[in-house]
Amino acid sequence: MIRWVVVAALVVASLFLLLPLIAIAWRAGPESGAALRDPLVGEALRLSLATSLASTTLAVLVGTPLAWTLAHVPFRGRPLVETLVELPIVLPPAVAGIGLLMAFGRRGLIGQGLAELGIELAFTPVAVILAQCFVAAPLYIRAAASAFRAVDTRWTQVAATLGASPWRIFRQVTLPLAGPGLFGGAVLCWARALGEFGATILFAGSLPGRTQTMPLAIYAALERNLSVALAIALLLVGLTFALLVLLRLTTRVERS
Amino acid sequence: MLSRYSGSAVTCGPVAPLTAPRAVERKAFVTLLLLLLALMIGGCASAPSERESLTVFAASSLTDSFQELAAAYEESHPRADIILNFAASSQLATQIAEGAPADVFASAGEPPVRSLEEQGLVEGVRRLATNQLVVILPSDNPASVEKLEDLARPGLKLVTTGAQVPIGQYTREALALMDASGDFPAGFAEAVLSNVVSEETNVRQLVTKVQLGEADAAIVYATDLPREEEGPLRVLTIPAAYNVEAVYLVALVVEAGNPAEAESFVDFARSPQGLAILEKWGFLPP
Prior knowledge:
By secondary structure, chain A is mostly helical.
């Protein structure tokens, strides 16, 4: 009896998750080909790829040292820092958007000073990258810290007794061992950055070619041309699916 | 090959088999599942209410006026319960076309309503009110805009909506009028439109961006000026020669859940009492 309940629950859950995706494909139909050639799509795709790659790179550059510190350096208040770093993951994107606006907007906390220096961030691709970084970087940091923690300290100790400098140990022992975990975290970060909507539209605005990433383009196209919106949606589904497959493959490599 | 396991105890032998859940636990689990299911079904079936619910989709610019209209209507019709949904008229039209449950549709422009009418989704289209456009600037006027010509100045941050939203369409129409008049430098409309830094989703968001000081200017409806308490904004009037008459239309949704009440509400909105409320909020007669 219990087996059938479980099977039923599994089927219902899978259908629930798959149905919206199937429905997009079903509704998009054969017109997607022509719809994909709409200039809005190309601009959104280029912008999405450029900004998400930039924000992921930024997250990796700034997040890796932070993750290593969280993993190996015990300091007072570490749990608090860990919680703060994880906060953007659960924070509603709209709240993130308002927060970024209040911080970096023209009359914002930091934005005011920046404006006097002639730097205005809102409505620029930089704002898009900032918004994406804010919501996606914590995913990388969390995965990276976990990967660093999993590195067997015996190997780093052995390397140290053999006379390697801390930087060399990090480069030739820690990094290769944590590598797959770091890569998986980066892929997750990239996927989240690609899909970011709420914070972006509030902080960066939405202008084709400058700040209108694919999720924003879907929203804009929805009232204008449904088939274009569906085509972009399909594109995004395909991209994120490919990213997740990549993630699965690296996890498998990690286990071998 | 480097092992991924830590130095301490590495489990190598066969894992102990999982014990099957006891009969009591199994019963409890099934009961819980059924209870959850029952709750969900029960929640979905809404209890029959004694009040007549009416769903009104209205353009964002009608937010304040329609809230007052709804309150006044509910006062004189105690059994009525009006649910308001405010968004860009184009977005509302898309929602209705996709089957959203609406009884009345009040749009800030013709195209959203006419497209629904052509699809046979709305009927009984009537004029509700008219409106005019105005330029708003942050109170500290960061871009020092003193006259309409300044809107074409390079580097100015203008916000508007997409052309499918009524205010976006009217803005482009007004700019075209300015171009055609010959009173403005050549290529004025194009210069102004190249200053657009963001296409927001509805007219109220344009007001917000200007209030926040993020945008230097925006073209909105004369009725969208915030109340005094919300913080003052600078206003630049657009002379009648270049201004457009924004026409608000109200229509009945064909597949309305409550057509009688819908008709009654529309009649109320267009009655002297309803029009007085609209006028109070700055709308012009239909």
